[in-house]
Amino acid sequence: MTTEMQEIAITEDKPLLPGQPDGIKDAEIAARILLDQGQEHTVETAHGVLHVTVHGTGNARRPAILTFHDVGLESKSCFSTLFKFEEMQEIVKNFTVVHIDALGQEDGAAAYPAGYQYPSMDQLAETVPTVLQYFNFRTIIGVGVGAGAYILAKFAMCNPEAVEGLVLINIDAEARGWMDWAAHKLTTLTSSITEQILTHLFSQEEMSAGTELLQSHRERISKASHLPNMELFWKSYNNRRDLNIDRSNTFKCPVMLVVGDQAPHEDAAVECNSKLDPTTTSFLKMADAGGMPQLTQPSKLTEAFKYFIQGMGYMASSCMTRLSRSRTTSLSSSYSMEGSRSRSRTLSQSSQGGQMPPSPSHTMEVSC
């Protein structure tokens, strides 16, 4: 009897021994695959049904990270490279990540019928509170690109209590002027919808070079079954209203603006930065990033995002893993604080550790 009891105990201990293939490891692998794919949901809103993907269970005491993609993209093609980046996992494991696909923009969506009235940009922003309510999120950190940046900016202005921070990539907060409107009309007569969207997503240099990334997106967009839906989203974005941002009517949370050097939206992002509160705004201009820095420079963007989150009081003990492996990283920055005269300095971080960059209480213009 004693021998039997000992054998049973040994058998039950075996799965806990390291290096032993067993059912527990299989379950862990399956759970990891499921977590990586995310849980897909359909959320009914006043303007239509949204496709939403949630990764992780997060921490109820922390905001969810909520993303909104650009025209011609959906959450996977817009954010997978960034959020699956190795060093981003330190952030992802500490927060629930929620990816919203704009109405009718998810991969494989059915095309809307002819004559369908697609929601305006303001109405798309009105769908975000429904998502928060559906998942019982109290607050978020918003990460938006292009049209998605505009939508999250509008949401933050209307719901300041629900937004703890904003990362706005390639934002254009202004309505199209007459010259832009005329140029757009001419473009619609001479270019396909695919090429119009590509010139929105990529810089002139990338368009001329015909990069591999550009070619892959050209093929994806041109063959998409829901291309008519993309066109409706594109038209809605081009008919956007001015957000009327100024320092007396601005965001109530820290904001990080991001744009690629020589990107199509560089001037618009610079203009937006000039109108925001310098005590709560960081401006990151990324060299060699093209029109989509979240795809071409995920490492640098991850670093900046970590600093941004740390400045908000989260992940204070987090280390900059890529910086710690490098010998020295320098960021040339100019910043102003509370209207004082702009100054310049260089921030360095060595392999032995380093200083934190300016907190979100500075306007920081960085070329990296």
UniProtKB/TrEMBL annotation:
**Locations listed in the record:** Cytoplasm
Keywords of the record, alphabetical order, are: Cytoplasm, Developmental protein, Differentiation, Neurogenesis, Wnt signaling pathway
Highest taxon of the source? Eukaryota
Pfam families assigned: Ndr
A single GO BP term for this record reads: Wnt signaling pathway
Which parts of this chain are annotated as the region Disordered? 330-368
**Low complexity bias (residue ranges):** 330-356
Q: Which GO terms describe its cellular component?
A: cytoplasm
| Entry-linked Gene3D superfamilies | alpha/beta hydrolase
Q: What does this protein do?
A: Contributes to the regulation of the Wnt signaling pathway. Down-regulates CTNNB1-mediated transcriptional activation of target genes. May be involved in neuron differentiation.
Regarding protein family, the annotation reads:
Belongs to the NDRG family.
Q: What is this protein called?
A: Protein NDRG2
> Which source organism?
Denticeps clupeoides (denticle herring)
